[in-house]
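I am sending you the entry underneath: sequence plus fold tokens. Let me know what the token row says about the fold:
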Amino acid sequence: MVLGCTSSAGKSLLVTALARWFHREGVDVVPFKAQNMSNNARVVDGGEIGVAQWLQASAARLEPHVAMNPVLLKPEADTRSQVIVRGKVRHDLSALPWRERGQHLWPVAAQSFDELRASHELVLIEGAGSPAEINLDDFVNNRVIVHADAAALLVADIDRGGAFAHLFGTWSLVPDPTRDRLRAFVLNKFRGDAALLEPGPTKLTDLTGMAALGVVPMLAHELPDEEGATVRALAPEGAQHVAVVRMPFGSNLDEFHLFAHAAHVRFVTRPADLDGVDLVVLPGSKHVAADLAWLRREGFDRAIRDARLRGARVMGICGGAMMLGARIHDPLIVEGAADGLDILRLETTMDPKKITRRTTVEFGNLPDEWRLLEGRTAVGYEIRNGRVIAHGCATSDTRVWADGGVLATTVHGLLEDPEVLDALVGVRPPPVLDATFDALADAVDEHLDTDRLWAMVRR
């Protein structure tokens, strides 16, 4: 089990690296995270899971499944989250206070873990946040590690500073059954000469009994961050400029990870940042009405229209597509009704039943501004409550609409297709994820004590 001293310590990255490393070693390995919190999700067999477990399954060369992330929390406000259980929305659990959910979620998490353990040689378990959150009844870390009787390693982000204190403090505060299973620690995101760390690792081993598994440097990689608003690549010289509006409840932002290899992509939070761009993208949204209110409050409604008058194209994806329409109706109060930006003749009605499916889009019958997309087919996925009806827009597919330089689609993932990007901005980037998985596995070989890793899984 990979536990972290803090959020963003590197748990997801390390599990992804280990998934590919063990797979290359011939192990039938599968990822598992009992509960994740993210608005970035992927459609898999059975519904939706967090993107981190989708990536980890891909690293292990497995078909992702809802058992790998049986509970997903998708924030809809500062104090409210939608609860997804084995891929499906549970409105009853979403309405419960936070502290009352655990007793209902634990049986599902345990059952899912048992299912994976029975069908694979090795389960790589990712913790959530920190196992030392002593104010919470923590089933995601401390209950899972006991149920699985797992050996664990503890990861600290040394780039934050105070890594040895984080490690010792976490070791000190976790329950005894967790402490007894902490076998090793990893110092992650290190910059500089690792020899200068001594005698810190040795002293920490003396104090805790945890072995020093290794020091992982600040790695250059192409994985999207769990919240997705990340640009890691440098676009080719002369490439187009793309602005993705970073809304408070923006979702599925990880789908832009390849776009930055084809265009100068930036996530923007100010209307002035739309100046000079060739394409404006409104991404998905977990709360369309709230994000529409934010767009108006910040002045993006006027800025998008001005960008369009300057010749920029505008694209809306899922929630962003709904925002480009005239009206969002919500008679059953799923998210809330709102007036759209009224740039396309679309109307949306929210439905409590969420659509989660993988799908294929065929582009055709589009205006000149999007003509290079015609005849292309792309695979994507849908995660939405809104049902969209178009009036007078060009389309050859019931989920893609366009009028002049404005295009909308309810399908995510199309911008991960190199051929679609080539048609959209004139650059066809190579796929990057599989090469990244191998590079991360190479980093395991180079920076971790792999003999000790084998000892942990063979105990």
Remarks:
- Residues 241-431 form a domain with the Rossmann fold fold (CATH 3.40.50.880).
- The chain has 14 helices and 25 strands.
- The mean pLDDT is 95.
